[in-house]
Fold Peptide synthetase.
Amino acid sequence: MVDLEVPTRRERATAHRAHPRRRRWVRLVVWGLLVAVVGWAVWLVVDGLRARHELNAAAALVSQMQRAGLSGDVDVVDAHLATTQEHARAALDATHGPHWSVARWVPWLGGHVDAVQATSEVVHGLTTSVLPDLVEVSGTMDPATLVPAQGRVDVQRLAEAAPVVTSAAAGVDSAAERLTRVQTTGLVGPIARPVERLREQVGELAALTSTAAKAVTLLPPMLGAEGPRTYLLLVQNPAEPRATGGIPILTRLRADDGLITLVDQQTAAVGNLREPVVPLTDEEMALFGPQLGSYLANVTLTPDFPRSGELAAAIWEHERGETLDGVLSIDPVALGLMLEATGPVTTPDGTALTAETAPTALMNTIYLDSEDKDDRDEFFMGATGTIFDAVLSADWPAAPMVDALAEAARQGRVMVWSAHDAEQERLNGTVLSGELRGSVGDTPVIGLYVNDGTASKIGYYLDADVVTTTSADGTEIIVEATFTSTAPPDAGTYPRYVAGDGRNTEPGNIRANVLLYAPTGGVVREVQRDGEPIGVHSSLHDGLQAVGTTLDLQPGQAKTLHYSLQLNHPNHIPPNLTTTPLAGKGT
């Protein structure tokens, strides 16, 4: 067949000339796109570097502001605020714009853009919405604000700061939540690491501002801003351990419009009734017996301090006819930490107490030196009263005292229960609450508690080391607890009130009733003592499995308990460990 569409010579020549033009046009387009992409990439890089510079500058200033705030230098805080905001604004501008919007749609690059923009947005939000609030109340949040002047805390000033601090805490919580949504998996290190560091720092700031918000909300009413308050302070003695501390001495405190006074002191021999003053659960009866709710000296047998507070208040009202507003707890180790801030004190009998000597004097020396119970109680109450007088005198630097109380609370040596429901609701979940928990969020909580079985002050010589290990698949936790008696070989010859009377174990030995609480959803499958299986003897307590074991330790002896805990689902988060604060290094 003849092709009637064969191009003419002219047409072929025209087509030949068109191809080079088309090729040149394609090359121009390609080069133009390449230049645009490179320019866009350079724009991103330049702005990214500028943002990093601005964020680093802002971070440096915030660190200076934090140090100045903690030292009470409000002028430095004020001076740096505007500059910090300028750096944060520049970083925000540098990470937003059309070039960033395009980058969000580029595979792999989009996640990096999200992370960079989230960082700048969070920092900008914190510097514009949160920092001004914190600067506004920085004088109020100065530790010196909490120092009693002639025994009185300025509760009005704290109350006025509460709305601002609460607003700041909400802003930080929002920022922390925003950062938790940023996925850093698969991001390059120079971007992933700063985001993760910022997330950690904002998380720490959220904890601090949350604590501050609770403090300025709770302290005014609890210190009597809305009317007088009466509290019972349990000065627990770990030399005779109880789950949350030890056998207490009782101190009655009154707070009225920020003025704190020590009313009186007495032993914990209150109650010893035939029946508990409030009904105990079957679980409590099985674990601790009826004296948990009938004898004030034994209310701390339970590791749940809010329950101890309820029971102590009920026994006190039944026996003394006085309604309490709350129950507090402290111990001689905490008092020693407080003496680091106040300096040495002298007791009514002329004994000098320092931060180093006070715990030993109150938990051990007095019981070795005196066989007279009244003399021992008088010394203990006189010494604690003298320390409280020194604290209320406010003749000490504020920051070390705040640090001392914070460390004591972290060790579980300072706890607070309020009889007012709204206040207790705010206390729950804080380091001061001492509540029994099996988890905090997704983190499992394991409890290991000791109740004395010797009926003496030999527990002063009890030490414990506890190590937890989570299996590779996250379904099992191993708890290794080694208990050691540091008592000297001749401890059996010590006075009866220290060595024990021999009814429960040989004088000089330590009998420790140990309770292991499994985390929420956890089950103890096996218990070994020094490598030998001893069976699992357990009860339930508030939905948690509690496994009991009794140890008898001779002077210098150590025994190890090995617990194998099975979780109901894999969890690789290291568990939190809550323990009885013992007299020595404890757990």
About this structure: Residues 229-418 form a domain with the Aminopeptidase fold (CATH 3.40.630.190). The chain is about 45% helix and 20% strand. The chain has three domains: 30-223, 229-418, 437-579. The first strand starts at residue 229 and ends at 242.
